Please model this.
Amino acid sequence: MTADIDRQDVTRVYARWAPVYDFVFGAVFARARRAAIAASDRVGGRILEVGVGTGLSLPYYSRDSRIFGIDLSEEMLSKARQKVADRQLSNVEGLAIMDAERLDFPDASFDVVVAHYVVNTVPHPEVALDEFARVLKPGGEMVIINRVGAEDGARRVFEQWFQPLATKLGWRSEFPWQRFAQWAEQTPHHVRLIERQPVPPLGHFSLIRFGKTAASAGAGRLESINAI
Model:
């Protein structure tokens, strides 16, 4: 699928967001972020947070979980590093510049892969999702907070109209659930949908959890996904 978002443009956009990101998005997305953190901590172990940004979520993980955060933006990561130092977050293993579509980790490296507001901001979302699944251990979970576009109605019309501006701001306003469903059916990494539920603000975003199964358990994924 042709990319409608460019990696370099995303990097530049989030460099501009970095000084004000916590102020603009901290409170707005706090409840959804906490829900994703709680889901991640229920699995525990080693957690990769993709798109860690300024590190808003880092202080809230259980100290029993070990966190590695990655992001494209050095400006955002510098804010995250400061949070780690100021709050003495010893459970944060590392923070690194890395592309979500090219994760520099071996297969099956993490118990949980978390992505807050990331999937609809990368040039090739399905490639990134495949990478999340690749580095996830069998039995682990992908915990995603993401915009899910409307299927029809006035909101759908608005999303289509707003898309050119959204791209300039660093994300897609149009991102239908069907893209997740089709990816889950086609990926070679054998995932199943565990949960999908709307989260604030306004229910335009969803908490989505995929579990990675053993290869022999890949059958029957379509029924699970379409039942939601």
About this structure: Residues 216-228 have pLDDT under 50 and may be disordered.
